[in-house]
Amino acid sequence: MSRTAVLAYSGGLDTSCAIAWLKEDYGFDQVVAVLVDVGQDADFEPAVARGYAAGASDVLLVDRKREFANDQVAKALLANALYEGRYPLVSALSRPVIAEAVAEVALELDAEAVVHGCTGKGNDQLRFELAFKAKYPGVHVIAPLRDRIWTRDEEIAFAEALGIPVEAKAEKPYSIDDNLFGRAIEAGILEDAWVAPPEDAFLLTSHPSTAPAPIDVVVGFEQGLPVALDGEELELHELIATLNPLAGAYGVGRIDMIENRAIGIKSRELYEAPAAIALIEAHRALEDVVLTKAEAIAKRELEPRWAKVLYDGLWFSPLRSAYDAFFAATQTLVTGDVRLSL
Length: 342
Description:
CATH architecture of the largest domain: 3-Layer(aba) Sandwich
Largest sheet: 5 strands, parallel
Strand content: 15-25%
CATH topology of the largest domain: Rossmann fold
Shape: globular
Order of helices and strands: EHEHEHHEHEHHEEEEEHEEHHHE
Helix content: 40-55%
CATH superfamily of the largest domain: HUPs
Structural class: alpha/beta
C-alpha cells in the first residue's frame, strides 16, 4: 500500500525542504502539497514548480480567498481583534482555513498523515494541529521542522544542494507569511530587538516620512461589516485589497512588537496590516456612536479574549462561537459611514 502524506504547503523554504524530508527521512511514497490561496500577493507558478522540484507527487492550488474574508476576517473585524492590543492576527486567522483545506484533501486521499512546516518554538504548530484534529480526527500529524532542528542557513544550503529554487537567501533570510489581511515578517537580523527593521523588510507599507499628501476615504458599514469604499460596493476581500495600498502609503498598519507567544517565549515580530488597522479603527468609531454604554463596556472586555482564543489556535472551539454570537448581537444597528483621514 502506498504511503501518502498531505502537506500544508506555502511554497517557502521550510515546506519546500519538508517535501524532500518526508520522502527521504519518513519514507512516504507520495507527498501531496496543498497550496491555499488566502489572498497572498504571490505568483503561484514558481511555488508550484518548487514543490515539484522538491519531489511532490502533486501540488494542488486551492482558492479560499472569499471564504477566508467572509468567515475568519469578517469575525475578526466584528471583534476588533488585536492580540496584546496591537497584532491584528494576520497569520493566526489564516491557519484554520488552510488546515481545513489540507484536511479535506487528506480525507479524500485517505492519507496516512497530514504535515505542517512549523517549528517547536512558534504558535502555528498549535493552530494547525488543533485544526487538523477538529477536521480529521485521529490523523497522524507530522512536523518535520520540529523533529529536526536546522538553522535557516542550513536549510538554504540543503535546498540549493537539491536544486530546489528558493527565494530566501543567507543575506536576506526573512521568514514571511502573507495573506489578504496583511503580512508577517520575522527571523534573521530581526531577532535582535536592538536592530531597527530595515526598509527592505516591508512591502505593504511605506515609511511615514515619505507619505503623500493626506486624503480622506469613506468606509461604509452594514451591521458591523465594511461593504463599501468611497461609495463603491465591494466584497470584503476586494475592499481589503483596495484599502491596503491606500492606507499603506501612509505607514498605517506597520507594527514592530515584542510578542508573547502561545507556548510562553517572547518573539520580535513585524507586521504590515494597513487595511486591518484602518478598518478596526473605523469600526470602533462607528460602535462608539451606536452601541449602548453597557454593550460597549462588555464588548471591549471580551474583544481581547476573542483575540487570545484565535491566537492560541482555538478557532474550532465552542468558546469562539459563543463570543461570535454575542458580538453579532451587538451589530444589528452598527450601520453607517466612517470617514478616515490618511
